Amino acid sequence: MSTTADPAAPEGYDGAQAPDTEELVEPREHLASVSLFEGDEGTLEQSERQALVALLKQRFISARTHPRDWQVLVENEQLLRSRLNDLFLELQVDRVREVAWKRQAFSETGQRFPTLLHDTAWSREETIVLVHLRDRFRAAAAAGEDRVFVDREDLVEHVSGFRPVHGTDLSGDEKRARNAVSSVQKAGLLIGSPTDDRFEVSEAVESLLPLEVLQELLVTLRQANEAPPEPSDQVLFGDVRTEREEAQA
Fold first, then answer.
1. Which of 27, 104, 163, 181 has the most CB atoms at less than 10 Å from its CB?
2. What backbone torsions phi and psi does residue 151 show, to the nearest 5 degrees?
3. By CB neighbour count within 10 A (0-12 exposed, 13-18 middle, 19+ buried), where does 149 fall?
4. Whole-prediction pTM value?
């Protein structure tokens, strides 16, 4: 008994033997595991997790201070933004100055979200330092300078120039001014060691202090300098909420 060949079959195939289906199916690529510890069900690569932790722990990250985390963020911005959104946080990215930071998300309906952050207002002296750094950075940029440096003693002296007319505690004022410089350095806006006498101004100072906030702060400082002392000596950054946001312990 003869076998009729399938006209659509390949040449030389008589239909007597079915093709091996395993040979026709391309092998499936093995998905690389991202498990980093026993029981790990996370879906992020280690570098992505490290960038996410840096965003949560630091006031900001930048290409200057966190080059590897910044590169990971640039390549995976939507993914990291999604992870922060899951925690009711928003990701802010300034690609021109290569700075990224987080901020608390707020509902358009007024609903209050749980938060991992708490806002710590900058003190009067810290605010003076921030405004001065922002001003120095903009002036240097206008002059075509790429990097800006400031001396610790110059910052302390600048703060002293805002001493209220009623201020008589010169020793206490100087101590607060020096503590303010140290605090701004710890926040990462002054690049250098805590014991350095000279610092580089971080490019993030302009991203975190937009023009409208700067103008508001200047008015607030002038008023505070002329008015009698208030029970609280703290200055908030207004409704734009650029206070010092820190992760809760």
1. 181
2. -95, 145
3. middle
4. 0.69
Q: Please name which of 94, 84, 97, 85 lies closest in space to residue 54, comparing C-alpha atoms.
A: 84
pLDDT tens-digit series, residues 64-121: 999 999 999 999 999 999 999 999 999 999 999 999 999 998 888 878 888 887 767 7
Nearest of 88, 96, 91, 94 to residue 79 by alpha carbon = 91
Strands (E), the chain: 61-62, 89-94, 99-104, 117-120, 149-151, 190-191, 198-201, 244-247
**CA distance linking residue 35 with residue 46, whole number of Å:** 9
Neighbours of 90 (CB within 10 A): 13
Side chain identity, residue 37? F
- pLDDT tens for residues 136-152? 998 998 898 889 999 99
Which structure tokens are listed for 208? Answer: 């975190």
Side-chain-side CA neighbours of 96 within 13 Å: the count stands at 3
The 3-state DSSP class for residue 220 equals helix
Residue pointed to by tokens 């207004």: 238
Report d(CA 7, CA 68) in Å as an integer: 60
Greatest Cα pair distance, the chain, in angstroms, is: 118
Contact 61, 73 (CB under 8 A): yes
How many residues are recorded in the chain? 249
